Structures are given as C-alpha cells and as structure tokens.
C-alpha cells in the first residue's frame, strides 16, 4: 500500500475536528454505533494466488477486503467490473468478459474471481485470474499487480462508502429524534408555564374571595350589632341577605381551594417532567454529536484507503 499523504482538504477536516475538541473522542472510540471500525488500519497488498476454473487451478492474484461478507465483497467487485464495461456471469468463479482494465498492458479477454472468508469474521479474500480463455491464464505482464491493487482499493472503498451512507442515515435518524426531543422539551416547558399561570389565577381568585368573605363577615357583624341595639325588620332582612352572600362566597372559596390544589398538583407534575425532557434532549444531543463525529471519521477512513 502506498503511504497516504494528508491533502489540504483533509488537513482542513482534521483542523475542524481539533477546533471542536472532538478529535480525542474520535480516536478513543474504536467502532461506530453501527459496529464499523472508526479508522483505516490495513495495508492493501496484492499477492500471487490462483482461481479454480473447471476444477483446475489458474494462476492469478488475490487481495483482502475488510468488514464485509464474501457475498458483499464479490458484489462490490462485480460493480467495479461493470464500471469498466465488464459483463459478469456465473458464481464460483464469477466470469467477466469485456472489461477494459486500465494500464493492464496485456490481452486478457476474461477475468475469473472468487471470494471467501479469510481469518477474522469480516475479512474476505478475493482471488482473480486474468485469462485468454476458460482454460488458459493470460501471461504475467506489467501492470497486472497494479490493476489488482486498484481492484483492492476500489472494492474496499465501496465497503467504506457503504458504511458512510449507513452512518449518514443513522445521523439523520438521530437528528429527527433530537427534533422530537426538542419539541417535547418545548411542550413540557409550555405546559409548565401554563400550569404556573393557572395556579396564579387560582390563588388570585382565592385571595379575592377571601377579601370578599372578610368584608361580608364585617358587614354581618355590624348589622347584627345594629339589630341588637335597635331591632328593625329591614336590618333583619339585610342580615339574611348578607348571610346568603357569605354562604355563596364560602362555597366559591371551597371551589377555588380545590382549583388551587389541582393547579398545584398539575404544576408539580410538569416540574417533574422538565428534568426528564431536558435529559432526553441532552441524550439525543450527545448521540447526534457522536454520530456527527462518526460520519466525519468514516469519511477520513474512506480517504485513507489506498
């Protein structure tokens, strides 16, 4: 594998991560939330190998593909062949015709390929053979190793590109979850404010009724004293009317006390929900921050495949 250089654009990305204070978190984190390696740690090296064609080994090359199944690796390889004008058929091995391999420097009308697990659970070895026909390998020529190396790069990049796409989808989903959490937080805050307003109104109404009751009690006491000193049917009528008014106010006061209790309970409930909503929002924010860092790290990983 050629030693990768840090391009200007990549340097800008690294600088941005440093400015955000998240580079250390990226490096400390081995895998993404989807289980992908955060960075590219492999050296792509093509090596001599063979492909079994019609039960006979045909001299060829092989390379490693990481973090995917054998079926996925072969599918990405066939996609790459398709971009080169190749037509694929068969399965084990896959047979490709018509592919124009850049810089191959030899006539190889056929390419055969197989893929199988190699070592770790998600490591795959693809073996390819350039052929003149179904039974004759193309003679080794300048450019074959470079052509196979390019296949290794393109297939592994396709794997990592798929990881980027998956990570971006996850990022979008978490972003939507954060919007929901922010909406939830706003609703809880609004309902808390409304509950507080209702409690204030209940307290104000109760205070007004309490003052009215005090006034009526004072009025009743004066009327009763007047009636005691100077009995008068009209004063007696006024006493009875005041008693009715007082009874009405007492009844209203009881209702307002109940309303105050209800409003207070509602406010207490909303207060309990505020920290829960805030925690929920903070969790989504942390998840989105991590998902953002994962997407950026995977894009750097994609650039590092050489």
Care to describe what's here?
The chain has 306 residues and is of the alpha+beta class. It has a domain at 43-159: TATA-Binding Protein, CATH 3.30.310. 62% of the residues lie in helices and 14% in strands. It has helices at residues 8-20, 23-28, 70-83, 144-229, 233-304; strands at 47-53, 56-66, 87-89, 94-97, 110-117, 123-131. A six-stranded antiparallel sheet has the order 1-2-6-5-4-3. Strand 5 (110-117) and strand 6 (123-131) form a beta hairpin. Helix 3 crosses helix 4 and helix 4 packs antiparallel against helix 5. It is rod-shaped, with a radius of gyration of 40 Å. It starts with 7 loop residues before the first helix and ends with a helix.
Order the strands across the largest sheet as they lie in space. Answer: 1-2-6-5-4-3
**Quaternary structure type:** single chain
SS-based structural class?
A: alpha+beta
Q: How much β-strand is present in the residues?
A: 5-15%
CATH architecture annotation name of the domain at 43-159: 2-Layer Sandwich
Which ranges are low-confidence, i.e. pLDDT below 50, for 5 or more consecutive residues?
1-28
- Largest sheet, if any? 6 strands, antiparallel
For the terminal residues, how far apart are their CA atoms?
Answer: 6 Å
Structure summary, number of beta strands: 6
Assign an overall shape: rod-shaped
**Secondary-structure element pattern, one letter each:** HHEEHEEEEHH
Helix residue percentage: 55-70%
Average of pLDDT: 86
CATH third-level topology of the domain at 43-159: TATA-Binding Protein
Structure annotation, total helices: 5
**CA-atom Rg in angstroms:** 40 Å
* Top CATH class of the domain at 43-159: Alpha Beta
